[in-house]
Specification:
With 338 residues, the chain is an all-alpha fold. 74% of the residues lie in helices and 0% in strands. It starts with a helix and ends with a helix.
Length: 338
């Protein structure tokens, strides 16, 4: 009788596990479907008149056969301009498809990162991440524009997913995939370097805290650095050589903006922008008590926590920049917060 009771309890337990798994799978599917509709619906109903209009114009000039920096002034990366030109070559002047090219990259990056989170932490955490990430007003606004920022964000999330796999699975090829992804993030927009700065801080933390494992840490860094440099630096050199791009002068013009601004003024601007970013995404503040509870009950922190901490510390690099800051510059922090 006792044996039958134990068997029945085990059976009921397995049934409840299967039922909960199915519920969470349906929750994940419904959440994905909802955000897919939300991000695509009426995507060309409103077009930004300023920066997005400039990007439409630059891609249109490329389609006409003109060269950036030779026949017209351009500030965006060549890869972004080539994408816009290619879409116009195939589909004509179609703002909807141009905007979708950015939205799709964000959604694919989010989906891949969600699946990795699901593999590591389970369905519930994956559903929470997906909701936090795509409910951000900043992400929703930028992801529906034909701008390089959302494209950078999409590839950054692919890189972060690979980093999570590398840290938890201890497989070096994931570091190479991360370097490849972050390299493309930089090709879309130079601000893609900021998440990489966060990873540099992570490696520095490992070198200080785990001195006995220096050879492995350095090897992982090399696996990451080689594909990153090949794609970001090598790809940039090749693309600029194909377009006759005058990006050196354009980059210099951006760097010269706000020259003469003192350190404390830059510190004030950076702190204000960082604080405003948290205010706009105030729902993420719920992540901090959850983090504390997780640490309290399990007695240790997740091995991915230093990765996320490095990302959140990387805006310190803005202290070296004098140009005015916009909120969208911090969009790369959203996946780490979520």
């Amino acid at each position: 009788i006792i044996r039958q009771m134990v068997i029945r309890q085990q059976y009921e337990f397995e049934r409840s596990k299967i039922a909960n798994f199915r519920k969470l799978n349906w929750s994940l599917f419904i959440t994905c479907a909802f955000f897919l509709f939300l991000y695509i619906y009426n995507i060309d109903g409103w077009l930004m008149h300023d920066d997005e209009g400039t990007d439409f114009y630059e891609s249109w000039q490329m389609k006409l056969g003109k060269r950036p920096g030779v026949d017209f002034m351009a500030e965006q990366q060549p890869l972004f301009l080539y994408l816009g030109k290619s879409i116009m070559d195939v589909a004509g002047y179609n703002p909807k498809l141009l905007c979708l090219s950015a939205t799709i990259q964000v959604l694919i990056g989010t989906a891949v990162l969600t699946l990795v989170i699901r593999k590591i932490w389970g369905n519930l955490v994956a559903v929470l991440f997906l909701g936090f990430m795509l409910s951000s007003g900043l992400v929703y606004e930028q992801a529906r524009l034909f701008r390089p920022d959302p494209m950078m964000l999409g590839w950054e999330m692919l890189g972060l997913a690979a980093v999570f796999m590398a840290v938890t699975q201890k497989r070096k090829h994931w570091w190479a995939i991360a370097g490849f992804s972050y390299g493309f993030s930089v090709l879309w927009k130079l601000f893609g370097i900021f998440p990489v700065v966060g990873l540099v801080l992570y490696f520095f933390y490992l070198l200080v805290s785990q001195r006995s494992q220096w050879p492995e840490i350095v090897t992982n860094g090399i696996y990451f650095a080689i594909p990153f440099l090949v794609i970001s630096l090598g790809g940039s050199i090749w693309l600029y050589s194909q377009t006759g791009f005058y990006y050196g002068q354009a980059l210099q013009q951006h760097l010269y903006l706000g020259q003469g601004t003192g350190f404390f003024a830059r510190l004030s601007v950076t702190v204000q922008a960082y604080s405003y970013f948290f205010l706009v995404n105030s729902i993420f503040l719920f992540a901090f008590p959850l983090l504390w509870l997780n640490s309290y009950f399990k007695g240790n922190r997740s091995i991915t926590f230093p990765v996320l901490a490095g990302q959140l510390a990387s805006p310190a690099l803005f202290l070296l920049m004098t140009r005015p800051m916009h909120l969208r510059y911090l969009i790369y922090l959203t996946p780490a917060l979520a």
